[in-house]
Design goal:
The chain has strands spanning 2-9, 12-24, 27-36, 40-49, 55-64, 75-79, 82-86, 103-111, 119-125, 129-135. It is mostly beta strands. The protein is flat.
């Protein structure tokens, strides 16, 4: 069982929790998983700390559909000079109720840039917001 994971199919990220795998002739096969709703993202800003080693984070702002749910652990997938940050929200339990009022959130996610060369990189959050940043030579 894996607590959480992300699948990026094309441009669409999907966030799963409680992923159950079984061993089928030496390869793992998904048996069950709970898909979670992605958070509504309004903006993202990249923060670069130039100290050595360089540290990069992204501050994400948006709204939760109801105040009684929580942000789940963010997932970050890196490929082709793009960091895909996937941010999902928890679900209410079967016996829980909550007033239908949107609630703003802000969270910061660290990006692992160790070993990356100088160049331009993209941060994509929930396939809704894109931001670019530049790593300088010698970072």
């Amino acid at each position: 069982t894996i607590p959480q994971g992300v699948v990026i199919s094309g441009d669409k990220p999907v966030y799963y929790e409680n992923i159950v795998l079984s061993n089928n002739d030496g390869s793992f096969v998904p048996q069950a998983a709970e898909m979670r709703t992605l958070a509504n993202v309004d903006s993202a800003s990249v923060n670069i700390m130039e100290s050595l080693p360089v540290q990069v984070s992204v501050t994400i702002s948006g709204t939760k559909s109801i105040p009684c749910i929580d942000l789940l652990t963010p997932a970050v997938v890196y490929a082709d000079n793009t960091f895909n940050v996937v941010l999902a929200v928890s679900e209410l339990g079967p016996a829980e109720t909550c007033i239908q009022v949107t609630e703003p959130f802000e969270t910061t996610v660290s990006l692992d840039v160790s070993g990356l060369g100088a160049g331009t990189y993209t941060v994509q959050v929930n396939n809704a917001v894109n931001e670019e940043f530049v790593l300088q030579a010698g970072s």
